[in-house]
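name: query_chain
kind: protein
chains: 1
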Amino acid sequence: MRIDRLVVTGFRSYDELVLEPPPGPQILYGANAAGKTNLVEALVVLARGGSHRAADPELIAWSAELARLEAGVSHGAGHGPDVVEVVIPRPAVGAAARKRIRINGVPRRAPALGQALRVVLFAPEEMLLVVGSPGLRRAALDALAAARSPAHGRALATYGRALAQRNSLLRSIREGTAGREQLPYWDALLIEEGGAIVAGRLAALAALAEPLAAAHAEIAPGEGRLTMGYLTNAPVGPDESPAQAIRRRLAETADKELWNGATLVGPHRDDIAFRLDDRPLAAFASRGQQRTAILALKLAEVDLLTSPEGEPPLLLLDDVFSELDPQRASALIRNLPAGQTLVTTAGSLPGDVVAQRTLHVRDGRIDESA
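structure:
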């Protein structure tokens, strides 16, 4: 898929912008606060229904009453073009704004956007993915698993609701205002949906293994094999499924959960570890090595989310060259996928980029430089 036309109105630093990007890599450069990240953010909103950086009201330009984003998206054979539109009105005093999402003029919910416009995003906000909290890694893996299978997203939503209800019930039992006989219903939901979530995560990690190692080897040859391992508090035993493992561990921790008033077992407590030649990357990696690992993950995601017809997602790389030495930056540029890619940078471009199409972002407009 590719963006044929992007229209941005009243969004962040852009009063009005129309961009018709050609296929292939696009390098957006300019000074800090010129609007490069805002453009990437607009595409994220069109693909996901919300920003990775801020709440909806913050996306509206100061001088505007609403932000409107529209993209014309073309696909491969067998799928006609789509027009994706997201409108974010400024909330009235004391009232919530109603965001409008349309695909080809038909109102839709945010999850439907991913079917019309798939994106893989690298953003500076993800630099804690290797060394930050487990929740960051769970969210990244769940987003990939949900993009591959909408059922994973539904399982996450059901599990989240069941987990909240079960935790509330556990606190009530601890306080003596509810009985244990109410637990089996929520246990069953937690086991079924939790097992599906773990299975989906494991499937995504298995599919990632070879593309991840290959992408890392291209960017940082000779550094070792990059892998991602799943760390769970309900390890699957012989002849067990993930759901059966969760059922077993819930029984083992039942008394402790009642004492704590919280669910101690399940995918909400699991983690994912980056390893280089089986050494935990978080224990020794430099900032450049961390960024390299995350970029390898993004390139592997592109591989996984490429359609059976060979149609890759849109790749967005924001401020990607920071903390990369010239060799890694050049290797990244050489290994960009064949699909449409937007790369932003505030600094000097690696020498390999001179032949690429570059766009200069400044003062709410974009000028073609090459």
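note: The two ends are 23 Å apart (CA to CA).
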